[in-house]
Amino acid sequence: MFSRAYRAAVTLPPLLWVTVFLLVPYLLLFCYSLWSVSASQTIIHSWTLDNYRELLHKGVYFQTLLRSMWIAARVTIFALLLGYPLAYYLSFGASKHKDLLYQLVIIPLWVSYLVRAYAWKTILGSDGVLNTSLQYVHLTKHPLEFLLYSPFAVVLTLTHIYTPFTFLPIYASLDHVPRNLVEASHDLGATPLQTFWRVIFPLSIPGVLAGATFAFVLSLGDFLAPLLLGGPSGIMISNIVVSLFGAAYNWPLGAAISLCLLVFVVVLLFLSEKLERKWSFQ
Amino acid sequence: MSTTIQSEIAVNPKATGNTLLSLRNVAKSFGRHPVLRDISLEIAEGEFLTILGESGSGKTTLLRIVAGFENATSGEIWMGGERLDSLPPYRRRVNTVFQNYALFPHLTVEENVSYGLRIARLPKEEIAARVEQLLALMKLTPYAQYKPAKISGGQQQRVALARALVNRPRLLLLDEPLSALDANLRRHMQVELKSLQREVGISFVFVTHDQEEAMVMSDRIALLRVGELEQVASPREIYSRPATAYTAQFIGHTNLLRGDVKDGIARCHGLAWRTGLRDGVGWFSLRPENIRVAGGAGSSVRFRGKILRQAFHGATELLQVESTDGLVLSVCLASRQNWQGELDLEFSPADAVPVRESQERN
User: B253 and B293: one domain?
Assistant: First the structure.
């Protein structure tokens, strides 16, 4: 048996950490969301649901949330479309350069997010690599404006950044598919394509769900990519939260939006977890 | 003894039935390492053939080549007048029961069994009827809607069999399908599997490392040793007439005697018996149960032996006996009395079966 002092010494630091850095901030956020701000920009510490009412009645917040979800959904789809074939190839196809390819997929994760976002800015801008190249080979006369400061740029950048997050869980689940199941399927007359749809894909669904959840949740809450590359039409919900906590100095409304987003994400994670369980068999 | 061997050869399906599968000079190497060398083998319609061998003998590789999961480095495989080895596995009318069953974990028992028929796009009514029939035959009807993880090992084994047999293949390949079962269930399944094979009349190629299993189930045994066929024969023949010293030792227990042959007489540690072998060194296999307590016919080889060790096996007892000239032999006697001290023993010269010395291979 461990002494009480030892147990206290081991459990107290993480407990303290969670309390100070997670529980208290969430509680504060919750309190702020029920307070309001006066005309002279001071916080009024009396309970009200005004912030939540404003969210429901002012269309702009709801629209931005919808647009953020739409951007996140597109990022998720593209990241899956890129990540899945890559994971499949690495797990089933590549044999010689497997480790090298795996590292190549992982290495971008070590590079700062900011650097990668800036890189896209350099590529997509009016004097960017892409536009100058297109003009140089006379495919276009003027720089293509839609490339930068648009939802397109945000989706492109986020897809690039979050594809490894879809790749990893899909690769893990594909690598866990017993190879004799593939042989059994061939043995029973199924072509490689039929085997993929009837055996391999169903068994990789937990990985797809985990990857999709990563990509969707991470891009839904993203604010740097829309800030750097989004322009006015590419604003996402986190940008609104940032400005409410910053220049607009309306912490209560910012807190209310944050909490709504938080609840939404928690529900999403819960559902994805349930589905993953339903689709895992081993 | 020799008459029973003759009758065994007569019922051997290879001699009577039509050839279904024929392997012609099949060889396989992984890189520079040869796994199979020059395998030629014919399997008859309705035959139960066992490929027997130690681990690393290449038996599973041979099976995988027939199924199409591996390509032979050289040689040909024919089935019913059709070249088989150029077809991908999903075009071969061959089904496999895998060692660990390889059941699809996301499909129910029923969906597993109907898999091949759904792929073949058979009419729904026919699929239902055939699946129902196989589930009933395998006593799996109550588990039709269960996922494989929810049923026992023996039941999974039967699902794997049903899933293969429902397609009515011409040839069923079984890769050590009983190795994961416990001893009792295993013995039970050996009998079940053999009678099932008789019932459905499909040729079975069964891979195992267990010589007893091979003896119980097979019409013929193909003994594989480091990538080469050592002997192909019926269980009785391979037991009573082993061609090589390796076969004699691998299948059952035996005493391997090294005799000096001169003028039709073999001599070994003071024992002497008639043989058809030419002069020189000859190897003989003498089964422990063919040595008996002296008292029989005059043509027997007699000797006196001191009991060194004794192991009780129920109906029989296995004794280690040392002859006066220092030859140690295993003797299997009925366990009726307490054998002690010295014994007068004998064996018939015909039971000292001449075998070829097995060449070293690697």
Answer: yes
Task: Write the Ramachandran bin of A164: left for phi over 0, alpha for psi from -120 to 50, otherwise beta.
Answer: alpha
Same domain, B172 and B253: no
Q: What is the pLDDT of residues A168-178, one digit of tens each?
A: 999 999 999 99
Partner residue facing A188 (CB), from B105, B106, B116: B116
Residues B91 and B204 in one domain: yes
Contact call for residues B160 and B178 (beta carbons, < 8 A):
no
Query: Which candidate from A186, A203, A279 shows the least CB-CB separation from B89?
Result: A186
Q: With a CB-CB cutoff of 8 Å, which residues 80-139 of chain B face chain A?
A: 88-91, 94-96, 98, 100, 102-106, 115-116, 119-120
Range of the domain at B173: 2-244
Query: Of A139, A128, A204, nearest to A172 (Cα)?
Result: A204
Q: How far is A98 from chain B (nearest CA, A)?
A: 20
| CA B64/CA B173 separation, integer angstroms | 9
Higher pLDDT among residues A282 and B181, named by residue:
B181
The beta strand positions in chain B, using DSSP E, are 19-30, 33-44, 48-53, 74-79, 82-83, 94-97, 171-175, 203-208, 220-225, 228-233, 255-262, 265-268, 271-274, 280-286, 292-293, 301-312, 316-323, 328-334, 342-347, 353-355
Instruction: Please answer yes or no on whether B105 and A194 come within 8 Å at the CB atom.
Output: no
d(CA A279, CA A80): 18
Q: Are residues B52 and B181 located together in one domain of the fold?
A: yes
Whether A281 contacts A203, CB under 8 Å: yes
CB contact under 8 Å between A199 and B104, yes or no, is: yes
Q: For A90-115, what is each residue's pLDDT tens digit?
A: 999 877 788 888 899 888 888 888 88
Does B33 lie at the interface with A, CB-CB under 8 angstroms? Answer: no
Task: Please name the residue of chain A whose CA is at the shortest distance from the CA of residue B169.
Answer: A188
| pLDDT in the model for residue B117 | 96
**Count of structural domains, chain A:** 1
Mutate to test the interface with A, among B96, B97, B130, B205 (most CBs of A within 10 A): B96
d(CA B253, CA B285): 10
A185: helix, strand or coil: helix
User: Using the beta-carbon criterion (under 8 Å), do B90 and A199 form an inter-chain contact?
Assistant: no
Q: Checking DSSP bridges between strand B19-30 and strand B74-79, what pairing results, if any? A: antiparallel
| SS3 of residue B300 by DSSP | coil
State which of B190, B223, B244 marks the end of a domain.
B244
Q: Distance between CA atoms of B93 and B116, rounded to whole angstroms?
A: 11
* A180 contacts in chain B (CB < 8 Å): 98, 100, 102
Banded pLDDT at A192 (limits 50, 70, 90) = very high
Number of domains present in the structure of chain B: 2
Beta strands B220-225; B48-53: pairing state:
parallel
Q: Does A193 touch chain B (CB under 8 A)?
A: no
Regions in chain B scoring below 70 on pLDDT: 1-17, 296-297, 337, 360-362
